[in-house]
Amino acid sequence: MKSLFLTFVLFGVSMACASNAVDEHNHKVSQLKVTTLSTMLANRGIGEWGYSALIEVDGRKILFDTGNRPETVLQNANDLRIDLSDVEDVILSHNHGDHTGGLEALTKALRKKNPKALSLLHVGKGIFQQRARRDNHMLAMKNRLQQDGVVFKEYTQAQQIFPGVWLTGHVPRVHPEKNWGRNGRIVTADGEIEDNIPEDMSLVINTEQGLVLISGCGHAGIINTMEHIVKQTQVENVFTAIGGFHLVNADDKHLTWTAEKLKSFGLENLMGAHCTGINSLYTLRGLLNADRKNVVVGSVGDEFSLKNGVRPGGIAR
């Protein structure tokens, strides 16, 4: 009888642990606000060819990419009256300078107020690989920042880094979206290979309304990325996409294919900044039968929140 009782107790504990694991995996955030700090359009602050956004989620701040020029994100944050000194986590979507250029200047400035500012960098594995015919600036930057106590964490697999907050890790290139430069090469022990930006990764937020996707350039492809995160999170709809999606050079055939795929994910809101392309954004708006309130060109200072939805910058309305 005692052994039977113990069996039931252990079974109950294991079921509770399993339930907690499922709950943790399926955690949905209750508060989310995304503010664009770097992109080309700006009616407040500085516009540039680059991308950065501040993610405020359930009381935590995350900086996604750091813009191009050293001063842009810091200046725009000041103009928008946003304090970045309490941000400790930074996500770098990939190695390109228009997403990493502001990192060192930001770290130096913000640490005058908070020694732990920008102390943990989340990056995709491959970001430090040597590129052919050009130096990978990330290698030298990594060495300098590590001397100042910055920690780099590399990812290959999708992972939940905070409750309801996911990084995609490496995204399988199932569809030939191929939205990266064709001339880049990576140096390996076996010779040079095509540089398809293997480290490219995006941020995903799980909410009661569905998934929110934040992308720097989306070199892995917006559809490849969405299919990957739906599989990993087991949440079927991606109702909001924010950031750069490198559709600036996409032809009408590719944009039509993209729009049909986006419909299948239940996409409602699209804030297409940086390399999405203004004309491509407007074309997608028509193909999605969306209105100007929900599908907008990204601009400095625009916002998306679970409470208020899309709030475009004045220049993009």
Automatic annotation (TrEMBL):
Q: What is the lineage of its organism?
A: Bacteria, Pseudomonadati, Pseudomonadota, Gammaproteobacteria, Oceanospirillales
Q: Where is the signal peptide?
A: 1-21
Segments traversing the membrane: none
Q: Give this protein's Gene Ontology molecular function annotations.
A: transferase activity
Domain Metallo-beta-lactamase residue range list: 51-125
User: Where are the annotated coiled coils located?
Assistant: none
Record CDD domains: DHPS-like_MBL-fold
Among PROSITE patterns, the record links this protein to: PROKAR_LIPOPROTEIN
Which InterPro entries does the record match to this protein? DHPS-like_MBL-fold (IPR041712), Metallo-B-lactamas (IPR001279), Metallo-beta-lactamase_dom (IPR052926), RibonucZ/Hydroxyglut_hydro (IPR036866)
Q: This protein is called what?
A: 7, 8-dihydropterin-6-yl-methyl-4-(Beta-D-ribofuranosyl)aminobenzene 5'-phosphate synthase
Species in which this protein is naturally found: Pleionea mediterranea
Keywords noted in UniProt: Signal
